[in-house]
DNA sequence: TTGTACGCGTTATCAC
DNA sequence: GTGATAACGCGTACAA
């Protein structure tokens, strides 16, 4: 790479030639007008005569002028940038939400600043600082495993600026949030499972502290109760939404002799369901013949996994877009205060659930 | 949401109370020093007496002071932020690289601005503007399907500031890049496949324009030639690195009667291999019994797919970290010019390749 | 060691 | 319509 080659070779402009970028003053001089006129043209503000506007536009093109956004934000006290706090990009659900946010933001020429608290080991508190330092106009917070998502930290964040939560809620605080109706989805899923004849269920739940985990759990239990069973008889194994914990908990949940084992495992998200699948494969337990499995999220990769997962779909991209729109509304001069309905979470019936072999 | 509830309820600070943030001057007054002293403390610059430093620090805490980063960037002519151009976050490879970038950046208190050109339909040219407008100190460009990755656009980007390419190279231009030795990986993979006895191969390649696609293709063909076969006899179907194209191309590649079909499909990335798997499943073609399949990337989700994919591993997170480090080096006052070796791309032998049934 | 004064590039307010 | 002028909040010579 450091060796000379005979092909035409160049380095990027890089910092080697920090050639000064043209400023508004330069443009003004070149166009023979005052800086303010240039500013007017740029912002479609004051009325500028057609001829002068043309001259300014021309000068901008000739000089290849780009407004200095730092100066702009300094002056306008807003950055046209929002933060996106993501616990784990390797989880496709978060990746998809992020895409949705990006899309909506780009449409408004708003930058998205990516923050992955877990990767940095930095307290979520850090993000409040970002908000205060004017680098961010607002923040979208994706809840999830390891986000350091203690309520107090989120509240601290909310104190320092507009925040929109995705798939999260803090009891007692009515923070703006975009969620799906996971409770209902979980209920429908469980009802379906029960209709298939399953009676010995077990739940691989999400982290206690997470609102979604609690919602899904409620949904499971409601359906179980509605069926005349006692929800307290259904064991709940608390996972952390990651694949690994699915694998570990499956080992525990499925240890007894086959006739005592649960016939179905309700997993609070797809990733953990995948982990369970992984365990079953190595343990020689057949899915769905020996044990049925359900997930939650309906990640695209689900279509590749065998057996295909019966799960509940959350519209990830749409939720991301909506979150961004909600935030922009909050940011606008007079928010519409429009209220957002939870997204539907829809049951996806596929191959990973079959009636139990040992019907009583 | 608009209904009153009896629980304690609050809204986030939001834009409702745009209470003025304290500035350096405020801190200075509170501490009984001059603004510059505060600045010195902040930047560990001029030597400040212990007592005054303490007073300043104290004042900052009391007032909950946060430096205005817009002003800072304006003054320092650098934003402490880099751009990250990602073609497709749903592709786990890119998500992992992004995590690596984030991690390295966070360590240096550098912000990562996420740009997803495909989502926005905006010309990549847009990113050059971002670079010039001082909002970004540099850019990391992930190559891939639909990134609008025409060489001229990348060069335009490189003209306007430091750019580091990941998994991409522009022939004739020696731009900084982080790559893996995909050619070699592809060669080893193919050698292994040939050793298994396969002679009727077909290739599901990546987009012609992409450097990685060309590299992997070269690797395949080198091994084929080394084996005494004529690479030109091996058909190449050009895909776009997305799952869907794998499905479509598999339909074409596998159409003839079984005894004429290729016994193995070399896919230029995992996603397309997944697509091929999908096609085979619906078409009733068994993998690997009827046809063997290979991928490239070794995405984590590979472990969940049946059969497990024989593939070539690229260290995604590490490559992201390295790319960020390379960019920081470029950005530093005097770049070390350290040269980065390509990452190894290592063969992962798993279940999706078996010797062909119909050995001649 | 500490304070003063100026400039970074824009925008907003006011006269003309 | 247009152009001076004054901030925005911070960094940094320079003087003290």
Note down, in words, how this protein is organized.
- The structure is a homodimer of 360-residue chains.
- Chain A is α/β, with parallel strands linked by helices and 360 residues long.
- Chain A folds into three domains: 13-67, 434 Repressor (Amino-terminal Domain), CATH 1.10.260; 77-180 and 316-331, Rossmann fold; 182-314, Response regulator (Rossmann fold, 3-Layer(aba) Sandwich), CATH 3.40.50.2300.
- In chain A, 41% of the residues lie in helices and 12% in strands.
- Chain A is built from 13 helices and eleven strands.
- In chain A, helix 12 links the parallel strand 8 (264-267) and strand 9.
- Chain A is elongated, with a radius of gyration of 27 Å.
- Chain A starts with 23 loop residues before the first helix and ends in a 12-residue tail after the last strand.
- At the A-B interface, helix 4, helix 5, strand 2, helix 7 and helix 12 of A face helix 4, helix 5, strand 2, helix 7 and helix 12 of B.
- Strand 2 (111-115) of chain A pairs antiparallel with strand 2 (111-115) of chain B, so a sheet runs across the interface.
- The structure holds a DNA duplex (16 and 16 nucleotides).
């Amino acid at each position: 790479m450091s060796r000379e080659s005979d092909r035409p070779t160049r380095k990027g402009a890089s910092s080697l030639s920090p050639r000064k970028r043209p400023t508004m003053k330069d443009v003004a001089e070149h166009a023979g007008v005052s800086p303010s006129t240039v500013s007017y043209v740029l912002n479609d503000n004051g009325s500028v005569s057609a001829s002068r506007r043309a001259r300014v536009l021309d000068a901008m093109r000739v000089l290849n002028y780009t407004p200095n956004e730092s100066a702009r934000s300094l002056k306008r006290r807003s950055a046209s940038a929002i933060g996106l706090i993501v616990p784990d990009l390797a989880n496709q659900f978060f990746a998809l939400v992020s895409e949705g946010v990006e899309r909506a933001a780009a449409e408004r020429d708003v930058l998205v600043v990516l923050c992955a608290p877990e990767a940095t080991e930095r307290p979520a508190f850090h993000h409040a600082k970002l908000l205060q330092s004017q680098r961010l106009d607002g923040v979208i917070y994706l809840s999830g495993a390891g986000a350091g998502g203690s309520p107090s930290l989120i509240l601290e964040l909310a104190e320092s600026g507009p925040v929109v939560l995705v798939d999260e809620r803090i009891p007692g605080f009515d923070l703006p949030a975009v969620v799906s109706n996971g409770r209902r989805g979980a209920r429908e899923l469980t009802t379906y499972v029960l209709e298939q004849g399953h009676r010995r269920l077990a739940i691989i739940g999400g982290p206690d502290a997470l609102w979604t985990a609690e919602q899904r759990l409620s949904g499971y239990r409601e359906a179980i109760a509605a069926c005349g069973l006692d929800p307290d008889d259904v064991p709940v194994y608390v996972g952390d939404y990651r694949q690994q914990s699915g694998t570990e908990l499956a080992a525990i949940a499925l240890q007894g002799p086959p006739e005592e084992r649960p016939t179905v495992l309700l997993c609070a998200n797809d990733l953990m369901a995948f982990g369970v699948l992984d365990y079953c494969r190595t343990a020689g337990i057949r899915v769905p013949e020996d044990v049925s499995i359900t997930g939650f999220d309906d990640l695209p990769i689900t279509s590749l996994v065998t057996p295909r997962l019966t799960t509940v779909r959350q519209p990830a991209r749409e939720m991301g877009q909506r979150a961004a729109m909600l935030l922009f509304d909050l940011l606008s001069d007079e928010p519409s205060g429009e209220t957002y309905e939870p997204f539907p979470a829809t049951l996806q019936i596929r191959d990973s659930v079959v009636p139990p072999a040992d019907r009583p």
